[in-house]
Design a protein that fits this description.
Layout lengths: L1 H12 L34 E10 L8 E6 L5 E5 L12 E6 L15 E7 L5 E4 L10 E6 L4 E7 L2
Length: about 160
Amino acid sequence: MKKGIVLLSKVALVSVFILATSCSSDDDAETIIETVTVDSSLPNGTLVVSRSGSFVAESGTPTAGTAELGTDDDSESFIHFESDFTTELGTGTVGVFLSTSSVYTADPASGNPDLMLIGNVDANGEKFIKLSAAPDAKYTHVILWCATANIPFGNAELN
């Protein structure tokens, strides 16, 4: 329930506001309208979590936190890293993949059937990654992969 309230508060902050003010008491009143665009990369309304898991650190990194898979009020799919998420960012960014296992198994000759690149992480803390479609049920893990060092930074099994 707390997550829903926090998420609703965040959505309220990015909602569209219209501000009308009068600068004069005569017929030449000036109206000012300000529009704030809603960030479509954030969930609309409440994120309903279907699966979640805790990160397991790999390769000596400080990776920790929780990953969630869910849908918003518009049935858009998202991966959500909670505010407790942390990993090593010495190389700048870390790739985020959905995977069929806890092991990053690249198979580019076959089109990487066991991996789906969904984004990058460039900061610790809360993050939403909007997915282009609901992922297949075969994807059971979120993997953090550092391509620069060619090593895993961590994984979370989604249950």
